[in-house]
Amino acid sequence: MSAAPYRLVWLALWVEASPREEAALTESLREALAPHGDVVVHGRGPVPRTPDLLHFEAELTPRGSTSDCLKALGFTWEEDYGWNEWERPVDGGVFLCPAVYGAQAGEAEAAAAPQFETGDVVRVRDSPQARELGLVGAEVTVGHPDYDASVAPAHRTWRYSVHIEGQDETEDLDERDLQPTGRRVRLYGDERISVSADGVAARAPGT
User: Fold this and answer.
1) Which pTM value belongs to this model?
2) pLDDT digits (tens, 9 = 90+) for 76-122
3) DSSP-derived secondary structure for the chain
């Protein structure tokens, strides 16, 4: 089976270090991940509630499948929970570099990258689903991307939960039903939403 055109492995890392070490650690983590694919690492500064830890985020485009990449990094898949978290064992252990204390990971594979991000304000196009929901022409705010994990990765298309003004519950709409407006708002405080291969959204601190 050919690899999906869009492939993303994301990592959230917590590292025991001081802020003055952030630049050097950003490069060290990038070098450690580079054998697995094209990678960008972002230093997000100290963790607010645990200032002796620095927070990093990595976005990795693997050469093969995302699941093969995660397994090569040492993560394991648990049917009821998804990809396991890594935390430094009491008897020692290293993930990417000795200073890493903990890590979380997720993945996404689809026919193309999602067109919209959390907080994008979009206008709903005319479609049977939009008419059924009474949302044709309405402006709504994107919550997070999702897809049908039962579809082969190379054929997956995106759908989004959308927030509707004056309504507590969100609705789901296909990407083709949404038109960009060029505006954005902040949702979920300072959290960043990532979606895993089984369609589960995960929130990581920082933007």
Assistant:
1) 0.78
2) 888 777 888 888 877 778 888 999 999 999 999 999 999 999 999 99
3) -PPPSEEEEEEEEEEE--GGGHHHHHHHHHHHHGGGEEEEEEEEEEETTEEEEEEEEEEEEESS-HHHHHHHHT--EETTTEEPPEE--TT---BSBTTEEEEEEEEEEESS--S--TTEEEEEPP-HHHHHHT-TT-EEEEEEEE--TTS-GGG---EEEEE-TT-SS-EEEEGGGEEEEEEE---STTEEEEE-TTS-EEEEE--
